[in-house]
């Protein structure tokens, strides 16, 4: 688990004379070394966090040049710590998809909700996942018992936007589940639902099944025949 939270502490009280004026009177230095006004830095942080439903990491704090603003913001409630290296804007309303947005922020958007969780979002099947399933090509893995991350690179055509996060397309989700350990009946339900609500058509599923390993191909085509 990353211990980056200390990078965002900052705050007044050091012996450097520049630190005596307080964080709002000083100018922040962004990643590129440019001096940034505190109000501008805070605006940048809000914009970056807004991509992920108000969630952001300590890396985002550094990128925005807000290191010295975070501790006062936590103290007055404008920022809430939600984990090691993870924070959220305090005035952002809670929502049912917050976990997906939170972990998308952790991976800087370079991850997608996938597998069982993606099926739940698309309304196909009745898998009732107990964990958040995501696919990520890189980035440091967080230590969270409620998160399952598969390391892999996804093509742009394999994902679609769900606002604050990416999710694998219905077709990609079906292919992933065919290769996973779910039973044949559960896979049948996923495929039948996808066809019934017009998220995929049987022909495209049948054709795409050829890209899988032999056992998964047979399983998936059996589900298509039963849909």
Automatic annotation (TrEMBL):
Residues 1-34 are annotated as: Disordered. This is AbiEi antitoxin C-terminal domain-containing protein. It comes from Nocardia macrotermitis.
